[in-house]
Structure formats: structure tokens, C-alpha cells
Amino acid sequence: MIKRFLYNFFRGRNGFDQLALTTWFLAMVFLLISLFGGVVGTVASVLSLAALFCTFFRSLSRNIGKRSAENSRFLSATAGLRRKFQNLKTRVSQGREFKFFTCPTCHTLLRVPRGKGKIQITCRKCGNRFSGKT
Predict the structure, then answer these.
(1) What confidence score (pLDDT) does residue 34 get?
(2) Which of 5, 22, 30, 105 is the most buried (most CB within 10 A)?
């Protein structure tokens, strides 16, 4: 009975997308800051409540077209930042086997196996050649 009610309630709703998850994360950060108390804590708790309201509003909204457009704008605005974090994650996870170089001409990230000594590296994007020590 409850399962059917919840299924019917959430049918046709937007759900949690990347923007809703980001606002939820910000709400948790503001909630932790609010534990410090004082004026900063009060402001942080108000911001936390506003972010939680925004998260639940987005998640429970039935206007999927508008929420999808907002999420697309958010994703395009944060694409560069998300790419930098993804590159950092890749560099950390593959740091033992590979050394990473940046092409001096086009700034493309290049991956070279470690332990090869001093080698000539050719950029796969622009064809520039430079040397590096692995």
C-alpha cells in the first residue's frame, strides 16, 4: 500500500539530477559551517535551509522540461571545472604508472609511461615535439 503510494507520488517527477545533488552537497557544507555558531553559523544555517528547499523543489517538480533546461545550463557552466577535477582524479589514480605532461603549445594533457628516461614527446593534437624526463 505504501509502496504503491510512493510509486504513484514520484511518477512524473524530476528526481535528483546533477544540479539537485550539487545544491544538496552545498546544503550539507553550510550545515557543517552552521555548527560553529555566531553570525556566521546563523547565515550558514539560513543558506543551508535555502539550499535544501531548492533541492527538494527541483527533485519533486513535475515541470521536467524547465528543470532539464536548468540542469543543462548548470552542466555547461561548470564543464571546465568538472573537467579539471576529472583530470586531477585521473592523474592521482594513474600517477604510479604514468607521468603527465602538458603540451607547451596547445596545453593538451599527455600521458607517458614512467621509467623510460629522457624522451621526445609528440603532442597528438598539434604535433609539437618537446622533451621530458619520465
Answers:
(1) 93
(2) 30
Q: Taking the CB of residue 51, how many other CB atoms lie within 10 A of it?
A: 20
The span from the CA of 87 to the CA of 100, in Å, is 10
Q: Which helix (H) or strand (E) holds 121?
A: strand 118-122
Buried b (16+ CB within 10 A) or exposed e, 15-41: eebebbebbbebbeebbeebeeeeeee
Q: What is the pLDDT of residues 22-81, one digit of tens each?
A: 999 999 999 999 998 889 999 999 999 999 999 999 999 999 999 999 999 999 999 999
| Grid cell of 14 as nine digits | 524530476
Task: Compute how many other C-beta atoms are within 10 angstroms of the C-beta atom of residue 9.
Answer: 10
Band (95; pLDDT cuts 50, 70, 90): confident
Q: Checking phi first, is residue 112 left (phi over 0); if not, alpha (psi -120 to 50) or beta? A: beta
- Asked if 36 contacts 43 with a C-beta cutoff of 8 angstroms, the reply is no
HSE-up of residue 24 (Cα within 13 Å, Cβ side)? 12
